[in-house]
């Protein structure tokens, strides 16, 4: 037990939330795990960061975290994006936890828009920040309607939409937040991760928790659960691929970000997962622009 | 809350509620996420007579004034009710349909699983979670588990189940998304079976 | 380099906070504004922050306004994020606005009503000419209001009492054994929404949003033909029954603005034609908000009756979008990096363009 827990002078409760709020969220987590992919409503609270900036993920983390945890927080796959830095600092302050950028060393990983490249393992919890939990919301604005669709497993609208996409673009044009079917029962939004990450949801050894603070929903995928990305026999699900490799570490199978280098269209592609890229470079892998100044920015300036 | 009780006779709850309830919850979460896995709750304080330590720990971690609790008749004692009322403030209900949580220590005499609240088609989470206390979680006849949270399959050997209990659990699973969720406790140990788990007793 | 700005890290955040503090302070040659000056002299800002921040504390609201550099939605957010951490001891008895110590009360429905028309402290009949004497340094002379010739009636009759013996106005349905009201701060919005949930959401809702919705209704987008039956402003006692006492004690008082809008109701097979009500209530003096709320409340009853056709009558539309803390956060979250999503979009567009170019080339070839 880390010293400092529950110090009387602590202005806010341990992990910020009061115990009653934690219990309410914990109960919702248990029901979400028992009904994989179902969006359980919860009494989301105002957080000290704005709605839309990770309040759902923060509430989930606050409800489960303890002083023995090791916490990692990423945004766009990177540990050093401003909002990830801000949230990581928050939990280091209010929950006395050790923080890390190392995916393997973390017990709780909070993320926005990515799943780490490195495979997760049993005992880890991946907490997703979710802006819009309802996969059908883009097709039907009314919560009363979409809730009924989930209740009666009426997902025809989703398939029609994918079919229309094929008719218009010659392919399923959804690129992020690609709809998934959980254990062949609930249609679920994987949050705005690129479809590149969808296969990582399937049969994952970690607990996947999804929190939407503004929309006040929690949902979950237990470990080793079947997660199927919707598709058609003649238009099978496919992920993004790049012709380029990571310019820093030479990775050929990671999700790449495009970095604009100058006004004349010069650009480089680098791993979105900064920890993965750093580990590869430390292990001696090098890309075509290894040593570029971007590589030194992965870690916090001293 | 007008029912008076003697504070001096209420035994202790968590020494550090923030820390201990977090530890217990992580085990509960792990149990619900990975059905059939066994977890140790020896961090918890002694519960009043009739409740095992693990059962008390679950109550202290999850119950409060927002959760209705159904107690089986064996637990409707001053010691247990007073303890739960003091530490959790949970309102008790007599109708299993109204219960967010039910605590069962005498499974043979308890109502059928189907008597508890199975949730609503649109809100299947509004269902009862049962905390069922058994003599042991490891020495009974084995049953095979499959489903979300389980890598290929798992085995669970609960002891002290009533006849045809697994048939009730199978019926409970068959009506998914409806259903109750089950937490089993014995002594310091805990395991869970959410409604999503398929159970086949060995020999069936 | 743009990339560096995104990958700013902790040092950049710390520096941004310092710069913000510097800007908040403004020119150090000008004395720093005190929280009590804000509380006393920007009192209508305080009232709005307390109302939409769901927390009645004038000092806290003044601090929030100061910290937010006068940005009221930001101050409302600060207040909300603070109030949500406060322990809850219980619920007061329902406030009796009929027992209000009235400072202002007007009715547009009657020329005169019992208790009279009391203008109180209102901008209504001021000429909107900038008063440059306020800009002058030093004290601005304030002439106190004149004493009324006759003492004001207490309690002042409500508009409901005026109608009481004619059954023209629908009664308030509040029964002794009613279940505790819905509480949005504890549970999420659920639909169809009860009136308790709707009123709570509207009371916390953004003044500007409700004002525009109310205006749209007046212009015919879901018109309820509202008439302002009564607005009252004043102080109401808060009573609480502690468990250990078993009887009510007064624990303080609140300044409130209450508005009752009435509309004609055609009645039905089982109901005689009657005036129906829309209700607005705010902390402090937020008259524009209270009136807007009352109009929107009344318009949303049409949703329950299945007559919704305009935005103001659509409860999912209104209630899901009225909270400015939610709305502001989500609109502004677009400032966060989205480059992973954008990379996915870029890829798709490039591929579609490539295919388009190929098709064009093939068609050109075929034509030649």
Kindly state the number of beta strands of chain C.
4
Order of helices and strands of chain B: HEHEHEEEEHEEE
Please indicate the count of domains of chain B.
Answer: 1
**Number of helix segments of chain B?**
4
Strand order of the largest sheet of chain B: 1-8-7-4-3-2
**Morphology of chain B:** globular
Query: Which architecture name of chain B does CATH use?
Result: 3-Layer(aba) Sandwich
CATH domain class of chain B? Alpha Beta
Task: Order the strands across the largest sheet of chain C as they lie in space.
Answer: 1-2-3-4
Please compute the radius of gyration of chain B using only Cα atoms: 16 Å
Helix content of chain C: 40-55%
| Sheet having the most strands of chain B | 6 strands, mixed
Percentage of residues in DSSP E strands of chain C: 5-15%
The percent range for strand residues of chain B is 15-25%
- The helix/strand class of chain C is alpha+beta
H/E series of chain C, N to C? HHHHHHEHHHEEEHHHH
What's the number of helices of chain C? 13
Task: Give helix % range of chain B.
Answer: 10-25%
The average pLDDT value of chain C, as a whole number, equals 89
Question: From the alpha-carbon coordinates, what is the Rg of chain C to the nearest angstrom?
Answer: 26 Å
Low-confidence stretches of chain C: 1-7
